[in-house]
Amino acid sequence: MNIQTVGVVGAGVMGIGVAQNLAQTGHQVILVDISEDILDKAKHEIRNNIRFQSFFKKGDRQESPNTIIEAIEFSTNYKILENADFVVENVTEKWDIKREVYPLIDSICRADCVFAANTSAIPITRIASVTKRADKVVGIHFMNPVPMKPMVEMIRGYHTSDTTIETAKQMLSQMGKECIIVNDAPGFVSNRVLMLTINEAVFLLQDQVATAEDVDKIFKGCFGHKMGPLETADLIGLDTILFSIEVLYENFNDSKYRPCTLLKKMVDAGLHGRKTGKGFYVYQ
Description:
The chain is of the alpha/beta class. The chain contains eleven helices and eight strands. It has an eight-stranded mixed β-sheet. α6 (about 160-175) links the parallel β7 and β8. α7 crosses α9 (about 230-235) and α7 crosses α10 (about 240-250).
């Protein structure tokens, strides 16, 4: 399948990263969200991200933000997804929201269009069940920041076909990414482990065992991690962390996934990490 035009649904942190990465690798991108304000912010963030990346590519040919932006069509009209060869969905990690999106794009997109759910915890088989193309639904768990991460987790749903897997691998290769294919289960591999780690790190902070700085220093200094669990939580977004751990708790009915009270309190207070300027750390 020749993948030229890719639809990206949701212009949050992950959707912005996916759209930017696709545009930088020669794709025509359709970025869809519910309001012009969100799309204007996305355009501004993509410009800033490209400028930021240029600091790390001093010896390489510099990309023009305008050239990248011109490869992205920003729209609030889902109807334009009818031209997409492939769609990556990145809406909020809440099933009630995702379950409304898929029947809509299913009715608009071509029959051969593949849907990739960029989700951190919601089962792919559940997502596929609200479409009429379950064999063409796959999970692609991109990592943040998307343009700078060379590896993704690909999830095969119960009905996902081998052809769909190969199509998704082809698109990822065009984006300059490798993938690890795993079977469908809530949280998959990465977040089934990571969300537990982050949640337990928040419990350590709540129980006053250590400061956020010291928790992260232990992981970086003792284990060689580039970021500690609380720094990682701020990068991902504490609201996304909470949604994900709640999905794990709901699906497994296991108390080890019980969300920390402090995490819920911080989300209620709007302390979502880097995207709001404050989480476990303060960002200027």
